[in-house]
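User: Teach me something about this protein's shape.
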Amino acid sequence: MAITIDGIVNVTIGLESPAVSGASYSGGLIVGMPPVKKTVEGFVEYASLAEMADAGYTSNDEVYKAATVWFSQDPQPSKVYITSTLATTEEGGTYEEPVVAIQRAQNYSGWYGIMPAGISHEKYADMSAHVETTEKIMCYTLEDGEELAASKISYNRTFVQRLASNQTAEADKYQHIAHMAKCFNYDPGEETWAFKALSGITVGTFSSSQGTAMEKANENYYVEVAGSKITQGGKVLSGEWIDIIRFRDWLKNDIQLRVLNLYVVNPKITYTDGGIGLIDNAMKASLRTGQQKGGIAEDSFDENGSKIAGYTTSVPLAATLNASQKKSRNLPDCKFTAILAGAIHATEIKGSLGY
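Assistant: First, the predicted structure itself:
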C-alpha cells in the first residue's frame, strides 16, 4: 500500500517556454555621428541623456541634440537606441555610410523607427531605398523650401516633415523625432499621427498655397489651429497613412508569433481539423487583439440589419487536402479579411436655425 500521495496520484508538470518576439513597434533608432574624439559601440541603448553624457556625448553633438528632443516629449520615452556611423580608419576623418549603420542595427531588436540626426540630407535617398526593403519606418525633416529627389519617390516607409520659414530653433530640425516619440507612446492601431502636440517644437506659419503643396507632396507639418498646437498630415510619401503601415507590420508579426507558439508549446499540431482549428484560432486571436486596439473595425450592421464582421478567417478542411500536401506538412490556404478602422480627420456639419 502506498504511504505517500505520489504513490497514489503521481503528477508531473512540465513548463513550456513560449517563443518571445524581439520585434518592437515603439522603439526609436537615432542614426548619426559618434561623439567627437570618443569611441562608442556601433549600437547602444540609452535610458537618459545622463547615460549619453557618460558615454562621451556633449550638447554640441547632433545625436545628443536629437535625443534631447526625443526625451522631451510627453509622456517621456523610457529609452532610445543609437546606431553610429563609425570611422572607417583609426585616424578618423572618413565614416561609413548611414545605410551601413542601419544594417548593423538590424542585428538587434527593440526598435522600429529610424531617425537621422546630423546626417547629410543627400544621404536620405539611399536610406529611404534601404528602409523600403525592411519592415521599419523612417522619418526626416526638410527645411523651408528645401527640395530632395528622394522626397519625390512614392516610398511606403518614409515619413517627411516640412518646416516653415519661422521654424529656426535648434530643436525644430528634429521635428520628426518629436513626432515619432509622441506617436510611439500609443500601441499600433490606437493612434493617428495627426492632431498631436509636440514639446519643444515651434509651430510653423504656412500660407494656404504652402499647405496645398504639402498635402499634395504627402508632407507633414506642425501648426496652430484655434489655439491648439497640432501636427497635420499623417501620410508616408506614397500617400498611405503611416499608422496603417505601422499597424500592418504589428499584425503580421503578431500572427506569426502566435502560430509559432503553437508549434513550440505543443508536442505537435496534427494535420486534422482539430490541428487546423488551432491555426485558425491563433489568427482570430491576433485579429481580435487588433480590433481591441482600434486598428480593425468593430462588427457593424448595414441598413437591412445584416451583420458586417470586422474580420473573418477561413482555413481548409483536412479532407480537402491531398496526400501530397499532408506529406509536405505545409498547411495552405489559411486566409483572413479585415476592415481597417481608420480615423476621422475632418468633419462636415450642416444645420439650420429658425424660429
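Now, about its shape. The chain has two domains: 28-242, 266-338. DSSP finds ten helices and twelve strands in the chain. If you'd like, I can walk through any region in more detail.
User: That's plenty for now, thanks!
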